[in-house]
Amino acid sequence: MTFTAPWWLLGLLVVAGLVVAYVWLLRRRRRDVVRFTNLELLDSVAPKRPGRWRHLPAIALIAALAVLTVALAGPQATAKVPRNRATVMLVIDVSLSMKATDVAPTRLAAAQAAAKQFADQLTPGVNLGLVSFAGTAAVLVSPTTDRSAVKNGVDNLQLAESTATGEAIFTAMQSIDTFSRSLQGGPDAEGVPPPARIVLLSDGTQTVPGPDGETEPRGSFTAATEAKNRGIPVSTISFGTSYGTIELDGGRTPVAVDDASMERIAQLSGGRFFTAATESELRAVYSDLSEALGYEEREVDASRPWMVGGFVLLIGGLGAGILLGRRLP
Predict the structure, then answer these.
(1) Dihedrals phi, psi of 3, to nearest 5 degrees
(2) 8-state DSSP, 209
(3) Rg of the chain's alpha carbons, rounded to an integer?
(4) What is the enclosing helix (H) or strand (E) of 12?
(5) Residue 17, class by beta-carbon neighbours within 10 Å (0-12 exposed, 13-18 middle, 19+ buried)?
């Protein structure tokens, strides 16, 4: 816990002084009482009081002062708060390998169902966009808080040939840049643009500009490095199994997932890497991402509980003083 005005905590010295003064007064009262040798006079001067309970009002009031002093110091605590003005681009591979049935009913169908759940789970203040890619990449939905538009785009995904992973990342970054410039007010008060993230789901190796072209100008590794430079982490999801196949040209063609390239993209961009071999695993990954992308940790005011506690102790001390001593403490 931190404090916005820690100097108020010096007031606890006053509270400690009150405790010392109270104890001193109790001891002095005992000494004064012992001086009375006439017991009848003692009973009339110092009538019996309700034992140890007589200290309750003073204890409650001193505790109230201590708690209220902490409240005045402005305590702060770290809490999760929903993000506002953040942008997330969901990038989904629609190459022909996504029709493999190693993930029931197909990789693409499972990805669509999980993506729509992801859209529903994101906090309302996050702007979500959609990019699909095969041989080329296209922005299907520009960043928006309208989740129905994104889900409709996910439902309309169509398979095509090839896998241009690098082009997909560049396209997502361009969409983020365009959207950021169009936001009313632009960057925040400190001149910092809203945070942006890319979530890339793919099941295979880049084929455009080629499996060995990741470092070419439009390659996936080049794109990931550029994303790092722009402060846009790319979290990757390698979706599928090592034994997936599709029917192509009259035969079965292996379409194993390429975990290595997906992990490398995440590392180069500063994002996170995930694997998923079933729809339920993919839903779990999206749930984890929605929590990380939809919320951020901030220092928030935590004085209210202290103020409530101090008020309760204050009322309790006053009430105890009236009930036990028939007077205010």
Answers:
(1) -130, 140
(2) S
(3) 33
(4) helix 11-34
(5) exposed
For the beta sheet containing 75-82, the strands, ordered from the edge strand earlier in sequence to the opposite edge, are 2-3, 75-82, 295-301
End-to-end CA distance of the chain, in Å? 33
Residue among 216, 231, 239, 215 nearest 271 (CA): 231
- The structure tokens listed for 78 are 């770290």
Block residue for tokens 């816990």: 1
In this structure, which long-range contacts are made by residues 1-6, counting pairs with CB atoms below 8 Å and at least 24 apart in sequence? 1/75, 1/76, 1/77, 1/302, 2/75, 2/76, 2/299, 3/73, 3/74, 3/75, 3/76, 4/73, 4/74, 4/76, 5/72, 5/73, 5/74, 6/73
The Cα 44–Cα 272 span in angstroms is 79
Find tokens 């017991």 and name the residue.
39
Cis amide prior to 57 (ω within 30 degrees): no
Instruction: Determine the residue type at 280.
Output: S
Q: Which CATH superfamily is domain 81-297 in?
A: von Willebrand factor, type A domain (3.40.50.410)
Joined together, the tokens standing for residue 256 give: 């194993």
In DSSP notation, 114-159 reads HHHHHHHHS-TTSEEEEEEESSSEEEEEEEES-HHHHHHHHHT---
pTM of the entire predicted model: 0.71
Q: What is the pLDDT of residues 69-121, one digit of tens each?
A: 888 888 888 777 777 778 999 999 999 999 999 999 999 999 999 999 999 99
CA torsion 13-15-20-24 (nearest 10°) is 140
What's the chain's average pLDDT?
A: 86
Residue 98: beta bridge partners? none
Helix then strand count (H, E) for the chain reads 10, 11
Between CA 275 and CA 235 the distance in angstroms is 11
C-beta separation of 62 from 53 below 8 A = no
Per-residue pLDDT, 74: 85
Domain spans, the chain: 2-74+302-325, 81-297
Amino acid type, 24: W
Categorise residue 326: left if φ over 0, alpha if ψ from -120 to 50, beta otherwise: left
